[in-house]
Design a protein that fits this description.
Distance between the termini: 37 Å
CATH superfamily of one domain: NAD(P)-binding Rossmann-like Domain
CATH class of one domain: Alpha Beta
Structural class: alpha/beta
Low-confidence stretches: none
Strand order of the largest sheet: 2-1-3-4-5-10
Helix content: 40-55%
Order of helices and strands: EHEHEHEHEEHEEEHEEHEHH
Length: about 290
């Protein structure tokens, strides 16, 4: 089976590389440099040359705040390109595995969001990702859409690495405490996707949306506390004090969901995949970063 990974140089893409190298699949890894999904004209030709059985789209426009003033770019990558990819997968009879976001919800819920709960994105980024989901479903291709949240790893830019960098330089930090979500270790997302590949059957598997995130809800403040607790145990420099602040004290161009906990039970019952243990993920990331330094 031939697997095509789009966005292989990004955070999730690099984790997918780590996990797929442990399998016997024939894998083609592409980054934006050689396979720009925003180049809609060349997509069909490039995909037809590769002829994949599975396409994993780890490529996305993820600059949440910048999207508010750069709507066309966000829509191109998160919606129009995704629609094109889905239609090509339909023509090639290939499965399309696409990663989406908790930002498709408005964050006003009081219990974890299920896959069929009403969507209501509050910003350009969330709207572009939702439109991409809808385009995939309209295409009629075999698809798996995975919504996730608060992604971190040893790669790229993410909250954990930002906290480590700021904590090494400052005695005090202020972190938002009234946004609740589930941190998700990107290596666990990659493992989940690889596990799903072996389960997909071209005739029997059912397309659908699935949620995958961390196993315990927390605030950004609590996430930071857990990061610094582990960092401190390893002898890393951490701040002396963390101030908990409200979202209103840290205004951003894009609205963040106040509550974006995702119910992952459907993925568990369908594929036997358990939620990400993000506390173990923190330990693994810090260990890998120490080895690299």
């Amino acid at each position: 089976m031939k697997v095509l990974v789009l966005g292989s140089k990004g955070q999730l893409g690099r984790c997918l590389y780590d996990q797929l190298t442990k399998t016997d699949y024939e894998v083609v890894y592409t980054s934006r440099a050689e396979f720009d999904i925003g180049d809609l004209v060349s997509l069909s030709e490039k995909m037809s040359l590769i002829k994949p059985d599975m396409v994993i789209n780890a490529s996305a426009y993820t600059a949440v705040d910048k999207a508010e003033s750069d709507q066309q770019a966000a829509d191109l990558i998160n919606n129009r390109a995704v629609a094109k990819l889905a239609n090509i997968c339909k023509a090639l009879n290939a499965w399309f595995i696409h990663v989406s976001t908790d930002y498709v919800f408005d964050g006003t819920a009081t219990k974890p969001y299920c896959e069929d709960d009403e969507t209501n994105p509050q910003g350009v980024y969330g709207e572009s990702k939702l439109n991409g989901e809808l385009a995939i479903m309209r295409s009629g291709c075999n698809h798996i859409i995975i919504r996730t949240a608060w992604v971190f790893s040893e790669y790229g830019n993410n909250f954990l690495k930002t906290m480590l960098r700021l904590g090494a330089d400052r005695e005090q930090l202020s972190v938002v405490g009234d946004q609740i979500g589930c941190p998700t270790f990107a290596q666990d997302i990659a493992k989940a996707i690889v596990s799903m590949l072996s389960s997909l059957d071209f005739k029997k598997s059912t397309s659908g949306i699935f949620h995958y995130c961390g196993d315990q809800p927390c605030s950004w403040y609590e996430f930071a506390e857990a990061i610094f607790l582990e960092a401190n145990s390893l002898g890393l420099k951490t701040p002396n004090y963390i101030n908990v602040i409200e979202t209103s004290a840290y205004p951003t161009p894009a609205v963040r969901p106040a509550y974006s906990v995702l119910d992952c039970s459907k993925l568990g019952s369908s594929f036997g995949i358990v939620s990400s243990n993000w506390r173990d993920g923190i330990k693994e990331v810090l260990y890998k970063l120490q080895i690299q330094s």
